């Protein structure tokens, strides 16, 4: 039974007014483009071009290595300048293909699209795999893997994650308002793979115009419904979205497919529509460039591989030097120290702020107020888990459900002592999961 919300959560300032009314704008890159071979969870792709090769937009330049992997495509025409490690937003150096843009933007000739009804399930999944589509909400999990559950007949819900609960981000909203047919078309493709499933467009109720538009366009679609969710962060978290829509709960050791659900982000579903109905690979995505340090916040249609400096220039530059630059949103994004990095398949936003509130806060002793417990959507005790994490007591950390944390940041947000609870728990989770991986 649908709940339309979940226990816990917070209501931070959403900052969406800065960019939500700015239509999507296509950006043509000017300089070199950099394509990291690892833009997804799983094995890095393998380069199939060499230095000096001439490539066209839409040409595969790196192929997947194994089932949990994804190929990479050129998004401009030009010459392969280098295959070498390049820095990405996380600060890591990742092996990348560098292409010198010839400014001609010549594309390959795409094969004619085959009608959906004439394709088998395997053909559809293979098209999605070959298009290089991954979870574009930030996770980067190869989409063809998600669409290949062990028991496809047990999938009863395909949920389009249209919540966009992260503050400041408006890329999904603009995509839904300007290209809703592509979202619905992609959802129909996924539903074709799961004959027993219903499609749900799950939208937070702060996007009333979007809800009305989607309802109007799906009124004659018996297998698709639009659900209006209560606006609350982190409504877009997979576990909490599924609970809000279906009433089904599951834990960190399970997958959505274990409770009969498939969840995909808006841009991912649009990419599926493009791959299956148009025969085109994943080459671009929407990136919100916003924040009070930006002259003209925008939603850009960005060719993957474009340098972040170019997006800032397109947004009019900075009003003043930002004190903090975040890749993603303020709750789950991460601070970056250099804009000389490429956009990737998982790049959702660039948030530039004139004030770094977090760095200015001085943590003090826990006052045992319980606010972190009240706000936690994972129903754990963040204060306790953070203490275990700080003392490297991983046995008790795991015993007290530390792995159930979704790293949403709600506990750190509400803590009156300004303790970095999420950061401590996140570090411990990484160490525990890495240790488990070693023992396998």
Gross CATH architecture of the domain at 114-277: 3-Layer(aba) Sandwich
Give helix % range.
25-40%
Beta percentage is 15-25%
CATH superfamily of the domain at 114-277: NADH-ubiquinone oxidoreductase 51kDa subunit
- Name of the CATH first level of the domain at 114-277: Alpha Beta
Q: How would you characterize the largest beta sheet?
A: 6 strands, mixed
Average of per-residue pLDDT values:
95
Oligomer: single chain
Q: What is the CATH topology descriptor of the domain at 114-277?
A: Rossmann fold
Low-pLDDT sequence parts: none
Shape: globular
What structural class do helix, strand and pairing data support? alpha/beta
Q: Helices and strands in order, then pairings?
A:
Elements: E1 24-27, E2 33-36, E3 46-47, E4 54-55, E5 60-63, E6 72-73, E7 78-87, E8 93-101, H1 121-130, H2 143-146, E9 157-161, H3 171-178, H4 180-193, E10 198-204, H5 208-217, E11 224-229, H6 238-246, E12 261-265, H7 266-277, E13 284-290, E14 298-303, H8 308-314, E15 324-327, E16 334-335, E17 349-353, H9 357-360, H10 371-375, H11 382-390, H12 394-399, H13 410-414, H14 421-439
Parallel strand pairs: 1-14, 9-10, 9-12, 10-11, 13-17
Antiparallel strand pairs: 2-8, 3-5, 4-7, 5-6, 7-8, 13-14, 15-16, 15-17
Helix pairs in contact: 4-7, 11-14
